[in-house]
Amino acid sequence: MSDLPIKLLLVEDEDDFRDTCARWMQRKGHDVTAVASGAEALGLCEKEVFEVAVFDMNMPGMSGMELLQRVQQARIEMEVIILTGQGTIESAVSAMKLGACDYLTKPCALGDLEHHCQLARDLGLLRKENRQLKALISRDRPKVPLVGHSQSMMSVMRVVEKVGPTDKPVLIQGESGTGKEVVARAIQQASLLHDKPFVTINCAALPEQLVESELFGHQKGSFTGATADKPGLFEIADGGTLFIDEIGELPPALQPKLLRVLEDGSMRRIGSHRERRVHVRIIAATNRDLASEVAEGNFREDLFYRINLLSLELPPLREREGDVDRLIEHYLTRPWRIDADAREALRGYHWPGNVRQLINVLQRAMILAEGHDITVHDLPDEIRNDANGMRIIDPSSFRSVKSDSLPLSTSGSSTLCDDSMLKLDDIAKAHVLEVLARENGNKARAARKLGIHRRKLYRLLERFEATTDEPQTESTTST
Ligand SMILES: Nc1ncnc2c1ncn2[C@@H]1O[C@H](COP(=O)(O)OP(=O)(O)OP(=O)(O)O)[C@@H](O)[C@H]1O
After folding, report:
1. Is 353 near ligand 1, meaning CB less than 6 Å away?
2. 283 bridge partner residues
3. pLDDT per residue over 76-123, tens digit each?
4. Model confidence over 259-277: pLDDT tens digits?
5. What gap in Å lies between CA 33 and CA 35, rounded to an integer?
6. Does any ligand 1 atom lie closer than 6 A to the CB of residue 179?
7. What is the mean pLDDT of the chain?
8. Are 212 and 280 within one domain?
C-alpha cells in the first residue's frame, strides 16, 4: 500500500467529528477538503478532482447515499467510502451496489479511517491503470529495434540514451519515414517511465475538432456526437508518455492548450469546467522545419521553446553510410536472398521515403521474386533507372525556366569551371523551380515532392538566389 498523500474530500455535517477527522488526516500529510453538506460537495467536485471521498450517510438535505448517486450520475471518477452511525447489513449492501468502494461505522478509530482511505486510493489507481492498459492494448505496437550503425545513427542513439532518463519534452525532427516514432519509443524505453503508458496521436491524420477531443477528451453533450464523457489521451497517458506526431500540424487554436499542459500539467475536457492535472512526458515529432513555422507565424514561439528543450534530428537514409545493408539484413527474412546487383541498386538509391520506402520495396520484391532470390528486376523502375545512371528528368520541366536565370557557377568565385558540374546544377535548379511552381510556391509540398527536407529546399533556394544575383564575369560564364 502506498503512503503518498491522498487528495481527500470529507463530507460530514457533525462539526466536531468533521474537524477532528480533517485535522488528523492533514497532520498525516493528506490534502483534505472538508465540507458540511452534499450540495457543497457536488459544487466542489465540478471544479476539482479528488481521489477519495468520505460521505456521512445521515446528513440533513442530501443524504450520503443520495450524494453518492449524484456523483455516479455525473460520472465523477473518485473512490467513495460511506460512513454511518447506524450500520446495518442492508445499508452496507445498498451503498456498495450504488458504487461505494467501502463502508465504515462510527465511531471509528482515526487510524482505521486513514487506512481505509489509503486502500480506496490504491483501488482508484488500479482502476485507472486498468483503463490505461485497455486503451494501450489497442494502440500499442510491437517494439521495433533501432537498426543502424552509421555514425549519424550512432550519435542519435547516444542522444536517446542521454535524453531518455529525463522527464523533459523532446522534439524529434526528420523527413518522413526516417523512424521518428521508432526513436520516440526508444526514448521511452530508456526512460524511468518505460513500464508506463506510451500513447500516440498523429495531428495530421485527424480533423481539427477531433484532435482536440482526442487530446483533451470531452464532456457528454459538449458537441453533436458527444454521446458520453470521454477521457482524452492526456488522461490516458497520465504518468507515462504521449507521442505527438506531426506536431507542426497542431491547429493554432490548440497550441495554447498544449502549452498549459506543458507548463503546469493542467487541462480541461471540451465542455467541462473541471480543471484536471496530469503528469505526462511529451515527445513530439515533425517533418516540418518548426523554426521556420515560428518565423512564418504558423507555430507559437513559446510552445516551440517548450517542446524544443531537447531536440534531435534524424538523418535521411541516404546520409546513413552502411545502414541500407543493415536494414536489408533485418527486414529480409530467411529464406530470401538478394543478389549483388540488386543490393548495389538499393545502396545507391536516394530514398526520398527513407526507411519506410526501403521496407516497402523489400516487401514488394519478396512477392515478385522468382523463388527466393531477389534480383534487380524485382525492384521498382525508379530504383533500376537510378542504378543505371538514367535518372530521367522530364524535359518539359525546363520550359518555365528562362535560360538567363540559370545559375552560372556553383561556387561563384571559382575561375576554373567544370562544365559537367555547371550543367548538373542548372538541371537541379530548373527541376527544383519547376516543382515549386507546380506546387504554387508551397515549399513544404515542394520539398515533399522532391524528397528532400524542407530546410534543404530553403538552403538550395538561397544558393540559387545568391548565384543568380551575382554580377556575371567572364570567368563564370556558363557554356
Ligand atoms: N532505424 C530503424 N530500424 C528499424 N526500422 C525502422 C527504423 N527506422 C524506421 N523504421 C521502420 O520504418 C517505418 C517508418 O518509421 P516511423 O513511422 O517511425 O517513421 P516516421 O519518421 O515517424 O514517419 P512519418 O514522419 O511519416 O510519421 C516503420 O515501419 C519503422 O518500424
Report:
1. no
2. 170, 243
3. 889 999 998 876 778 888 888 889 999 998 888 999 999 999 999 999
4. 999 998 999 999 988 888 8
5. 7
6. yes
7. 82
8. yes
Other CB atoms closer than 10 Å to residue 35's CB: what's the count? Answer: 18
Let me know the angle formed at the C-alpha of 272 by 268 and 278, rounded to the nearest 5 degrees. 25
172 to each of 92, 153, 205, 329, 400, how far by Cα in Å?
54, 13, 18, 26, 37
Q: Indicate whether residue 144 lines ligand 1 (CB < 6 A).
A: yes
Alpha carbon distance 461, 230 (integer Å): 47
Establish if 147 belongs to a structural domain: no
Domain around 418: 395-476
Ligand 1: which atom is nearest the Cα of residue 178?
A: 21
pLDDT digits (tens, 9 = 90+) for 1-25: 667 899 999 999 999 999 999 999 9
Q: Evaluate whether 312 touches 183 at the Cβ level (below 8 Å).
A: yes
DSSP state of 121: H
Domain co-membership, 406 together with 471:
yes
Section 318-346 average pLDDT:
92
Is the pTM of the predicted complex or chain greater than 0.80? no
In short, whether 113's Cβ falls inside 6 Å of ligand 1 is: no
Domain total of the chain:
4
Residue 298: inside a domain = yes
Angle at 21 between CA 89 and CA 26, to 5 degrees: 135
C-alpha cell at 54: 468520505
Q: Are 204 and 176 in contact (CB under 8 A)?
A: no
Q: How many CB atoms lie within 10 A of CB 427?
A: 15
